[in-house]
Request: fold
Amino acid sequence: MSERFLPYAAVWVIVYNEKQEICLLRRFNTGYMDETYTIPAGHLEKGESLQQGAHREALEEAGITITDSKLVHTAYRERTNDRIYIDVFFEVLDYQGEVYNAEPNKCDEVIWVSKDNLLENIAPSLKFALEAIFRGEIYSEYVE
Reply:
């Protein structure tokens, strides 16, 4: 019988502005994928639901309080360091506050981009998942 393992759980938050552009944050000074763009995201913390984790990450990284969101995608992601993630993506339907860089020690730029024109230096696994989401797919698999 195979040995059981526990994958890491990560939550991802897709925030749109009034033009239906996506909020991207550029990683800075983290030691992992610095200078690439990502969306608000992070590991799930003990005791919180997936949706609670997504809402917390949006507040910590983009300074917004989400009042309504929906699950739009789940992804299996296998990294070269032997970590396996279950990534859960939420789309923000409503929020309070204005998006800003709430973690200037980990992010050096916040921008809005069209979903039809994603940047080249977006994190590869994120770009893969977003493209699947935009095609209406609810599940994807990504192996580095």
In short: The beta strands are 8-14, 21-27, 37-38, 41-43, 65-78, 84-96, 107-114, 139-143. The chain has two helices and eight strands.
